[in-house]
């Protein structure tokens, strides 16, 4: 069977797996954004604390994904939950680092002007610093999403949702006629999701960032 025929016959299944893949990554990046931006806000003006936080989340990214999923089997079992926890861990570094860098790069003169106008610390953060740092934070979320889309495929190793199931299914019977088509179909699905996610973040940047800050 040609790859085109395979796609036509398995399109519904691939779409279902693609939606599962996008959902598990979306939920994971959303949780990582809440945690990561919170950690960045708490440490961006404390050099030592910021270094410690970045060092800790950097360690997460060095753990081989297959090994981490294997370790989670005894703690969290199999399925969606351990995949989400692992993706949150892998997504933290770009978001935390970009939040800290983005907030530290805000021009001190702008902050001092806001302070001179009588704005409180919270008002300066919400109305001046965060909007100016937002494009950099959004870039961190974008990198985390692309990273998570690739790693989520390995989550099929512990029966996680998504396109990794198609890839692992093909690899497990590599000598069968459609094995290569399955691997290619799952891989192509991840690439398509990555392109769509990238376009979404470009659109989000245009919609949520003022022209003067872009």
How would you concisely characterize the structure shown here?
It is found in: Cell membrane; Membrane. With 214 residues, this protein is mostly helical.
The number of strands is 0
Which class of secondary structure composition applies to the elements? mainly alpha
Mean pLDDT: 92
Beginning-to-end CA distance, first to last residue = 48 Å
The radius of gyration is 20 Å
Query: How large a portion of the residues is in β-strands, by DSSP E?
Result: under 5%
Task: Provide an overview of this structure.
This protein is mainly α and 214 residues long. Helix content is 82%, strand content 0%. The longest helix is centred in the first third of the chain and has 41 residues. It is elongated, with a radius of gyration of 20 Å. The relative contact order is 0.15. The mean pLDDT is 92.
Keywords for this structure?
single chain; 214 residues; mainly alpha; 82% helix
SSE layout and pairing:
Blueprint: H1 3-43, H2 47-62, H3 65-76, H4 80-104, H5 108-116, H6 121-154, H7 164-172, H8 179-208
Helix pairs in contact: 1-2, 1-4, 1-6, 1-8, 2-4, 3-4, 4-6, 5-6, 6-8, 7-8
